[in-house]
Amino acid sequence: MKTAHDADDILVDDLPAPRHSRRLAVVTETYPPEVNGVAMSMARVVDGLNRRNHDVQLIRPRQPAKLAPPLSGQPTVDEVLTKGLPVPLYPNLRMGVPAKRTLVKLWSLKRPDVVHIATEGPLGWSALQAAQHLALPVTSDYRTNFHAYGKHYRLGLLSKPIMGYLRKFHNRCDATMVPTQALRVLLAERGFERLSVVGRGVDTQRFDPARRSAAMRESWGAGPHDLVLGYVGRLAPEKNLGVVLAAYEAAKALQPRARLVFIGDGPMRPELAARAPDAIFTGQRSGDDLAAHYAGLDLFLFPSLTETFGNVTTEAMASRCAVVAFESAAAGELIRSGVNGWLAGPGREADFVAATRMAVSDAAARAAVAEAARATARRLDWGDITARFELVLEGAIARAEPSFRLAGLQPAA
């Protein structure tokens, strides 16, 4: 006769409870192989949910034939492609078109437990309408500061209507995920409801200082001891890139052999090349190639004030690259100035340039900051981020279950 102390009983009692598999519909208007922070983050979340035993249906616009096949690569991710159009000012990205009727039919035949909407465009709006028509719980992401772009694209008069649309969109959802506590506070002050902070992770195996290449640096005209400053991202007005040029001039005054590398592309490239004729322009990079470019930098300059998070900040930190940024988005959340990076007050361009001078002039401090940045990045595990994401979904499902029963419906088996 077995006792409570028998080995078999202990092994059974110690087994974790089986994870409950959910049927999840994820709607996004951007996804790899498109290259941007939202696409990359959503691919990581979809992969993480799949690994956590969930059945994921991914709804996104069909991408141009010139792009590579989608990167999900997971056998249980059911991809549903919809019509798409080029995004104004961003021709390499696609915008979904309204598809409410299609989604109502799709979800009536295969009812998800919850619908998650990553983008607030026409496809996202029709997904919200379809989900509410079917009494499905809905969660969303607030990922892009559309309202902050107004001054850069002469959309000032549309700023309030855009914010009104975003507030209406997200307040119709059961929960909205935001990447930082600061953004949660800002949106709450503007009338957004049911906000949950779910940050972003970084792949520290890909973004690794071991990828540093002397040959790549030589191609930039930089020797082993020369300082290389860099920026990664879209070359566009909303990125505030004039500050990068000012910081570079200050760096050259201290180290005449310093080099500046722009990694990315966009409409400002000709202007930047004219203003900084000795700068290196690599064009858009991705994957391991992008990681090698980060690893070749010594100082990362990121002056954008329009980010909700800014994945490039954590990618640079993971690459053991010292960061100079404004106290905003990911930098404001993760960096302690002088410890694992340098911060300037939002919009204080003179302070940004001064922080760059400090980083350039003290090699020992720069090395210590870069090492601390790498240590910070190593704590940003995508598994933890996915678990927090999952908790928000489960909360929305739990709150919706009484409504299901009142309507005579049952959650998906």
Structure description:
InterPro entries: Glyco_trans_4-like_N, Glycosyltransferase_grp1. Residues 35-206 form the Glycosyltransferase subfamily 4-like N-terminal domain. This protein is an alpha/beta fold and 413 residues long. It folds into two domains: 12-201 and 382-406, Rossmann fold; 209-377, Rossmann fold. 41% of the residues lie in helices and 17% in strands. It contains 15 helices and 15 strands. Strands 3-2-1-6-7-8-9 form a seven-stranded parallel sheet, with helices on both faces. A six-stranded parallel sheet has the order 12-11-10-13-14-15, sandwiched between helices. Strands 4-5 form a two-stranded antiparallel sheet. Strand 10, helix 8 (242-254) and strand 11 form a beta-alpha-beta unit. Helix 8 runs parallel beside helix 13 (349-361). The two termini are 39 Å apart.
What is the topological layout?
Blueprint: H1 7-14, E1 23-27, H2 37-51, E2 55-61, E3 77-82, E4 84-87, E5 90-96, H3 100-109, E6 114-117, H4 122-133, E7 138-141, H5 159-171, E8 175-178, H6 181-189, E9 195-197, H7 214-219, E10 228-232, H8 242-254, E11 259-263, H9 269-275, E12 280-283, H10 287-295, E13 299-302, H11 311-318, E14 322-326, H12 329-334, E15 342-344, H13 349-361, H14 363-377, H15 382-406
Parallel strand pairs: 1-2, 1-6, 2-3, 6-7, 7-8, 8-9, 10-11, 10-13, 11-12, 13-14, 14-15
Antiparallel strand pairs: 4-5
Helix pairs in contact: 2-15, 3-4, 8-13, 11-14
InterPro entries: Glyco_trans_4-like_N, Glycosyltransferase_grp1
Organism: Pelomonas aquatica
Protein name: Glycosyltransferase involved in cell wall biosynthesis
